[in-house]
Write a structure and sequence with these properties.
The complex is a heterodimer of chains A (255) and B (296). Chain A has 255 residues and is mainly alpha-helical. Chain A is globular. The N and C termini of chain A lie far apart (77 Å). Chain B is α/β, with parallel strands linked by helices and 296 residues long. Chain B is built from ten helices and 13 strands. In chain B, a hairpin with a 2-residue loop joins strand 1 and strand 2. The longest helix of chain B is centred in the middle third of the chain and has 16 residues. The relative contact order of chain B is 0.14. Classes of the chains: A mainly alpha (255), B alpha/beta (296). Chain B: GO terms for molecular function: ATP binding; ATP hydrolysis activity. Chain B: Keywords: ATP-binding, Nucleotide-binding. Chain B: InterPro entries: AAA+_ATPase, ABC_transporter-like_ATP-bd, ABC_transporter-like_CS, P-loop_NTPase. Chain B: This is ATP-binding cassette domain-containing protein.
Chain lengths: 255, 296
Amino acid sequence: MSAILINEIKNSIQDRGLVFWMFILPLLFTVLFNAIFSNEKVGLANHDVSASIVPGYAVMFSFFIMISMVTVFVKDREKGMVARLASTPLPSYAYLLGKWIPHVAIVMIQTTMLFIFGLMVYNIPFENPMLIGILSIFLSFTTTGLGLALAVSVKTENMGLAITQLVGLGGAILSGLWMPIDLMPDIIQTISNFTLSLFTHYAVALPIGWVPLDLKSILMSTLLFVIIYSIFWTGYTLYYKRVESSMNEFLDNKE
Amino acid sequence: MLAVNEITKQYGEKVVLKNVNLTFEKGTCYGLVGPNGAGKFTLMKIIVSIITDYKGSVDSSLSTTSLKEQIGYIPQDICMEEKRTANSNLQLFGKLYGLKGKVLEQRLKEALTLIGLKNHGQEKVQTFSGGMKRRLNIGCALMHRPSIVVMDEPTVGIDPQSRQQIYNIVDDLKQKGCTIIYASHYMEEVERLCDYVAMMVHGTIIEEGEIGEVLQKYTQPSVYVEGEFNENEFGTLGTFIPKNAGYLMQTSEPLKTMEKLIQYCKRNSIGVNRLELARPRLEDVFFSMIGSQLRD
């Protein structure tokens, strides 16, 4: 496995596209959107913006590792490298690990770089580094795991790129990573809340076996989740509407 | 010795190999020929363990190590890291077979010398010509000194010099006692390099054996002549078929036919520009057995 691992690390170091997507672009976006959202006209305190943008972009850009993984695996498959390696004594798991581990490391480096950048340039609060470290490790395995699943499922590189953009950027908007959540319209905030709740539900439900890993079960579970979420959402909305009107009534009577 | 026994392979309903039996003797080169879709590629993928779900067996009595360690597979595609140097690629494949340290370095030098890239080890593969890439592709499969080498059309799209170099590599491997399985569409190449040939059509072996015997079995020697005459003039000498600028006659007694032809021309004062014994060719056998129609 070490031969494939070392080879992949060397390839990653030489890959300019990877350096751009994983390291340069996140830094540029962090600086750019910090400047935009910190503008006085936007009306948010500078400290809050950085504290939202830096971790948000660390998560969002970690999904871009999927692009690199799709490229690596699809190219290997297209040029016949996978078949050729299958003729050698290299076990298939060693090939998979050898290609996967460097990408896990890249995401960890990227996340660390963004947090250090945030700490040094924007002085973001960094109160529990241990927890952030553990979450970063989970994040690395999640995004590269998704990348691996995508890389072995898609037939072409372009298909992989399109799905990554959809998951990365679309997911970032819906999850409130793209910009501070307070700036978004109510409907987006609600979708963001729903998406995060759904992600959390599956992050727990799938590993412990509440929901079996098949399409029918996932669809049924999602439907059930939507119904329960809608009931709670409607209940809370009605409750707060009533609180709001009673408070307004109280103010009117006071005047 | 390597043997494939009763190999059958299906993709869904489609049968791509049907009860294929072949035996490859040590130190010989075995040519696999056949039109596209004949099953050569699938058979090679089974031999090199890329395909593992098939009926039948692949047996080797060469040594006790696993078959994968004995085989060097040279695919038709250039399967290498193009942005890396020739040395890096060779080292990668060497390491996959467990080579390291001084042994790895020694094999690296050996391979570079064998493939004629001794002075190009530090250059990136993307700067190589097609022929250099093909030779490096071969070198990668030879790092571990395999006793069986499977080559899938290794001379596609390269210049005559590189092709000659590859022929030399094959000759060298044969001399070292290596068993070679060589798939190609170039019949003259198979004739030049191989000791045995197997012809495949629709997943079955329709003919196999020592090349000389196959040629003898399916073709007769021919006499080729070019001169100032037309075919009606040959009279009782036999039937001559027009070919290129002259005529070709198949005969079991080529020397006698040539002698008669010379006498006939002398008697009738006919000028002869060219008269030669035409060697039977594998391509003629191939066309006579498989036909010359295009296949989809």
